[in-house]
Amino acid sequence: MGYSDRTKTVRILSCCALAAVLAAAPGFAPLGGIGWDGAAYAKSDKAGGNGNGGNGNGGNGNGKAKGQSASGKSAAANGKAAKVASADGTLHPSQKGKWNAMNANTNALDAHIANGNFNGTIGALSQVRLAAMAASGAELTPEQQAALDGFVDTSDVMADPQAIADALNEGTDPDTDPQYSVDENGLVDCSANCDGIDDAALAEKQAEADAIAEELEAEAIADAYDQFLEDSKQRIIDESNKPLDEAQQEELFDEMGDKWGLDLTPEEELVEEVPVEGEELAEGEVPVEEEIVLVTE
């Protein structure tokens, strides 16, 4: 065996011995040392952490974003709830639009009324305020009355003479009782069954007629002021920059009234007519049953 062959044999034996040593050490890994593998794991974990952390951070970011979104949604829900809640008696400011100006100092509105300035948003609010004051029978200043007269002319309101005469003769028997007439100047005269009617009796009837005329004229003026209020409210509706349904319109006027201490939505009095016993009922009417009183001994 030459030198070269012996060298090759030694190398082969060395490699076999090394392989045997490595095989006998199962816990040994050439690249598995703690220094690298731990670092590699830590790096992998960190990378995964970054990745996961990125996801986690992203998750956190997403979580934060979701949290913010949730907050935003909650705020929107709160806003919606606020709208619903405010709809119970008042409208949300976003629904009132230009009519948030109702919060203006009432002195500013009264100044517009006194100056006869009913232009624009404040002017429209001043008009409906004046109309509500008139319709409610509030005492007006001379300036307010002058402004009101500019809208509603009541100088020619006069009670109908026939309506006065009908009131004087109501409940009387036209065949036997004295009957009275009223001329265009409101003067009373006896027109039938006038035996025993002297100047004193006529004077008494004249005073009664004057009171009736005054009441009828007051009712006519009140009706005119009520119509003025309706017209003024319609102006608010027509000039609104926000669409409002009927219920919201009523809420808007209720809120105005609350702020000004006035009633902008007066309810009409319903007078229920009770049929007289023996009187024929109109079609569709329900007869009123007599009250039955139970007597127990």
Labels describing this entry:
3% strand, mainly alpha, signal, 60% helix, disordered C terminus, 9 helices, 297 residues, elongated
What does this structure look like?
- There is one protein chain.
- This protein has 297 residues and is mostly helical.
- The chain has a domain at 130-260.
- The chain is built from 9 helices and 2 strands; from the N terminus they run H-H-H-H-H-H-H-E-E-H-H.
- It has helices at 3-24, 34-86, 93-96, 106-115, 120-135, 142-151, 161-169, 199-238, 246-260; strands at residues 179-182, 188-192.
- The chain has a two-stranded antiparallel sheet.
- A hairpin with a 5-residue loop joins strand 1 and strand 2 (188-192).
- The chain is elongated and about 75 Å long.
- The chain starts with a helix and ends in a 37-residue tail after the last helix.
Rounded to the nearest angstrom, the radius of gyration is 48 Å
The main sheet orders its strands as: 1-2
Query: Per DSSP, what share of the residues sits in E-state strands of 2 or more residues?
Result: under 5%
Biggest sheet architecture: 2 strands, antiparallel
Poorly predicted runs of 5 or more residues: 6-10, 17-85, 289-297
> What letter string, H or E per element, gives the SSE order?
HHHHHHHEEHH
Number of strands: 2
Q: How far apart are the first and last residues' alpha carbons, in Å?
A: 151 Å
Helical content (DSSP H or I, runs of 4+): 55-70%
Q: Which whole number gives the mean pLDDT? A: 75
- Structural class computed from helices and strand pairing: mainly alpha
Overall, the morphology is elongated
How many helices?
9
